[in-house]
Write a structure and sequence with these properties.
single chain, about 220 residues, alpha+beta, Alpha-Beta Plaits, four-stranded antiparallel β-sheet, 6 helices, about 30% strand
């Protein structure tokens, strides 16, 4: 055992199955995540519950992709630092029983270039409940002139971020209709448009107000 670590943990950090946070990955992003971690040392650092303002608790040492038929998973072995005995005790007491990855899932190429060339005019973030991001991503994918990039923050009660670049603001009406339909079904999805550190919640603003703000700040 290295002198840096008090112990080791291993397991799958993302798979094509639905995980305990309700997230699942398609096959291609799993390959990309492995490559990004291997190429960027900072992505190997592990934080407790993804809170990067707290001291790191370990680092990823080995990665491998496993496949079983159509199933795919990214397996990792990580070392827990000796000065994080608190984390190791939580592991031994089974208060911590797994670990996961937070990262960007790139769904398109040259997003920024298209935006700068003027082909796509509006860029903003959507902040949404983790359990809703899959449906909203599918909605965005069905619309012409809309591209999106998902940032999944796999920690409890932390919203998922989807960056949207669109040729027009019709997508706000589509998203608002989605939100209204879920409200009619007794659900309360939390959706906010985020631009320049300002959050505009669908719960509090009309589509016209949201589009007016995006027009002003495009």
């Amino acid at each position: 055992m290295s002198s840096n670590f008090i112990g080791y943990v291993e397991g799958y950090i993302c798979t094509t199955d639905v995980d305990s946070h309700g997230d699942k990955f398609t096959s291609e992003p799993i390959d990309s995540i492995k490559q990004q971690i291997e190429q960027n040392p900072s992505l190997r650092i592990i934080y407790l519950q993804h809170h990067k303002k707290s001291p790191p608790c370990g680092e990823i040492l080995k990665l491998q992709i496993d496949t079983k038929g159509e199933w795919k998973g990214l397996w990792a072995k990580a070392g827990i630092y000796k000065d994080r005995k608190d984390v190791w005790e939580m592991i031994e007491n089974r208060e911590l029983t797994g670990f996961s990855i937070g990262g960007r899932v790139l769904e398109f190429e040259r997003m920024e270039a298209c935006h700068k060339e003027g082909k796509l005019m509006f860029k903003f973030d959507l902040e949404i409940d983790p359990q809703s991001w899959g449906e909203i991503k599918e909605l965005l994918d069905r619309e012409n002139g809309v591209k999106s990039e998902v940032y999944i923050r796999k920690a409890v009660d932390i919203p998922t971020i989807i960056t949207v670049v669109a040729s027009g603001l019709f997508i706000i009406d589509k998203l608002y209709e989605y939100w209204k339909n879920r409200k009619r079904q007794g659900q309360n999805p939390n959706i906010a448009v985020v631009i320049r550190d300002t959050k505009i919640y669908f719960e509090q603003s009309s589509p016209e107000e949201i589009k007016k703000y995006l027009e002003k700040n495009k």
